[in-house]
Design a protein that fits this description.
Length: 460
């Protein structure tokens, strides 16, 4: 039976959902690939690359289109705009696709979508781009040039330039556009963690997976050259968990001890909860909480795959105080909702959705949750605050606000809990800002607080 839809049409459908209807690309892409499972691996790879690439480079693509088209991008019909965007992406970033094929397929798609009258426009613009792409001049102003070249909204760029300076910012932006391998970690509930890591490494290599160790932690690895995680026996058996190294560092700085009670208040997808439960080696209890049933289900799935019995999952709103938890936790993990500006390389459309007003609302939410969950920490216990952003207002400023508001907490010295390479970047002894391209991780922030022990006896 002939296919009723081709890969370029599916790309267009996804782009329309994301750019015109406000959907998140990773959700729409996942649903489309699930719906059209009959597509060949090559076709699925094409859909993924063109979709993600078009969104990642969208400001640059619009800039190029405005150079060559008399009708500016924002004046175009949405369908035509997205056909041209994906076409320019293929022309600029996909050498394996012939220019003629890009132009011809774009025209066919425009006609199929009811825009036969614009076939000449689509064809003319793309052929003009194909002939003259190398002649495009980017803005001379350094900030404008970076905004276009790396497709980063100007308000985000100005925020970063004021905090980090042009050299670091350009390093970060360049790193966002690099393809990254998947980060994993081996199990931590065995006596010899290094031996467990070696066993995992040999198992993955036997499955044809390319694996490399990470310099920050002995149980952290990056993997590539595999088709699907579910096809790996090592994954199905729970021999490893998918988790970025920055997330793993949260658990290292928390320094759990056997028998501890740990609350992870915004735990989905559950990587940190599982990691800590493993580090407790069957003792104590990790309670992983999140707001929705869907998120709780993700955590439950990871817990069951890891075969953990010292962990439970609870659906709960972190903004509402749970009286039964007051001063019951040795460790509280507060990895809170944030702008996600440290993981733009993985969430390609997030930078277009987040706004300055949205960030201000997130800072309020973070402070609201911290004000609630700090009550769960036992005297002498630990509160770890973390985000996957590189925005000072959500990170350093929140640390200083928290210390001012709650003097019973002080920063815990985390330098001896991190590898030597990271110790020099720890600020005020108790927090660190990881930057993409500067550090070997996502953009990430973590701070560790200790609650005053009224007895004068410290467990930690």
């Amino acid at each position: 039976m002939a296919k009723a839809i081709n890969e370029r049409e599916l790309v267009l459908e996804i782009l329309m959902e994301v750019t015109e209807h406000g959907q998140y690309s990773h959700n729409v892409l996942r649903d489309v690939l699930s719906k059209y499972q009959y597509l060949e691996k090559k076709e699925r790879a094409f859909i993924t690359r063109v979709t993600e690439g078009t969104l990642e480079h969208m400001i640059e693509l619009d800039y190029i289109l405005d150079v060559f088209s008399k009708v500016k991008v924002q004046k175009m019909k949405p369908v035509i705009r997205n056909i041209l965007r994906s076409g320019v992406y293929q022309l600029k970033y996909m050498d394996t696709v012939p220019d003629s094929a890009v132009c011809n397929e774009a025209v066919k798609l425009a006609v199929k979508k009811g825009y036969a009258g614009l076939r000449g426009f689509v064809n003319g613009v793309l052929r003009n781009v194909a002939r003259n792409l190398s002649q495009v001049q980017y803005p001379k102003d350094p900030a404008e040039r970076m905004s276009v070249q790396y497709s980063i909204p100007m308000w985000i760029l100005k925020l970063w330039l004021s905090e980090y300076g042009p050299q670091i910012v350009e390093t970060m932006l360049s790193d966002f556009q690099k393809e990254k391998p998947l980060m994993i970690r081996s199990r931590l509930d065995q006596e010899d963690i290094r031996q467990e890591a070696e066993v995992l490494q040999k198992h993955l290599e036997a499955e044809g997976v390319q694996i490399s160790s990470h310099p920050y932690l002995p149980y952290a690895f990056s993997i590539s050259h595999y088709d699907h995680l579910g096809n790996l026996e090592s994954f199905r058996k729970g021999m490893f968990s998918v988790q970025d190294v920055s997330s793993m560092l949260v658990c290292e700085t928390a320094a759990p001890q056997e028998g501890d009670v740990v609350l992870d208040v915004c735990a989905a997808p559950g990587g940190k909860s599982v990691q800590i439960a493993e580090k407790l080696k069957g003792t104590g209890l990790v309670e992983a909480r999140d707001l929705t049933g869907y998120k709780a289900g993700l955590i439950q799935e990871g817990m069951e795959r890891a075969g953990l019995f010292n962990m439970r999952v609870v659906q709960m709103d972190a903004r509402i105080e749970d009286a039964a938890s007051v001063e019951k936790a040795d460790i509280v993990i507060a990895d809170l909702p944030c702008s996600g500006l440290g993981v733009l390389g993985k969430k390609t459309d997030l930078k277009y959705k987040i706004t300055e007003e949205g960030v201000e609302s997130l800072v309020k939410l973070q402070r609201e949750i911290l004000s609630v969950v700090k009550a769960y920490v036992k005297p002498g216990g630990t509160l770890v605050y973390s985000t996957c952003t590189v925005n000072p207002a959500e990170n350093r400023d929140n640390v200083h606000w928290f210390l001012d508001q709650y003097p019973e907490f002080s920063l815990q010295d985390i330098r001896d809990r991190l590898c030597e390479e990271l110790r020099r970047d720890v600020q005020e002894k108790g927090w660190i800002q990881l930057l993409p391209g500067i550090h070997k991780s996502d953009g990430f922030f973590l701070a560790c607080f200790r609650k005053e022990d009224r007895t004068g006896v410290s467990k930690r």
